[in-house]
Amino acid sequence: MIIIPQQADLRQVYFQKIHELLERVEQTQSSSIDQAAEIIASAIEDGKCIHIFDTGHMLDSELIDRAGGLYSFKRLSMKFEIQNLVRKRPEDGEKDRSLEGLMKYALRSSNLQPGDVLVIGSVSGKTVLPVDLALEARQFGVTVIALTSVSYSTLLKSDHSSGKRLFETADLVIDNCAPPLDAMIQVPDMDAAICPASGISSAAIMWAVEAKTVQILSQRGKTPTVLKSINNPGSYEFNDIQMRRYEETGY
User: What are the SIS domain coordinates in residue numbering (predicted)?
Assistant: First the structure.
C-alpha cells in the first residue's frame, strides 16, 4: 500500500498500481501459472473435472459460463443454514461455530471425484472454510490449487485447528501478489485504504491459466469447449452444440 499526496489524481494512481501489480504477477507467478495450466489440461485430458471455489470475491463469477471462457471450469458452491432462533444464553458464546469438519461431508455430497482439480480462491487464506476444504479435498484425492496473497496470509494466524493457512495446504500455490489488507491506496484524511488488488489480480491470473491450458490441449489434439457471446449471431446454436460436446467428451 502507498500513501498518496493530497493533490494526486487517484485515477492515475490506481492505474499505475494496477500496472505494477500485473507486472509483478507476470514476473513472479508465470511458472506457477504454467504449472496450474499443465495440471488442469492433464486432468481434462484424462476425463476429470475442474472446480472453482471462491470465498466471496469474483472468481466463481468471472470464470463461469463466460464468452471466451473454458466451459470445463465449473463453480463449487454450498449453502448450510440452521434456523433455531431461541433466546440468547450465556453458553452461546462458548460454542464453536466454525463448522470445521463439515467439508468432509460436503465433498461427499458434491460431484468431486479423485483426480479432479479444485481451485480455491481466498485472499487472506486464514479462515476455516477454505483451509478445511483444501485439506479434505486432498484427502479425497483431488489436486488443490490455491490462489491467495502469500504476503498477507503470512501475517495472519489461521482460524483452523491445524494452524495452517491456505497456502500451506495446497498442492500448488499461485500468489495474487495483493498487499497486506488488500487495498492499494491510502487516501489522505481517510481511515481506510481503497481499491483492493486481489480481485483484478486473481481474474488476470486465471485467464492466463486458461490461455495456457487451451494452448496445451490444442497441442495435444484436443479442442476445448469455449462459448461464444450470446450477442453473436448463431451463438445460441453454437453454444448448445458446444455444451453437449463437453458432456460427451469432458473437454
Answer: 40-222
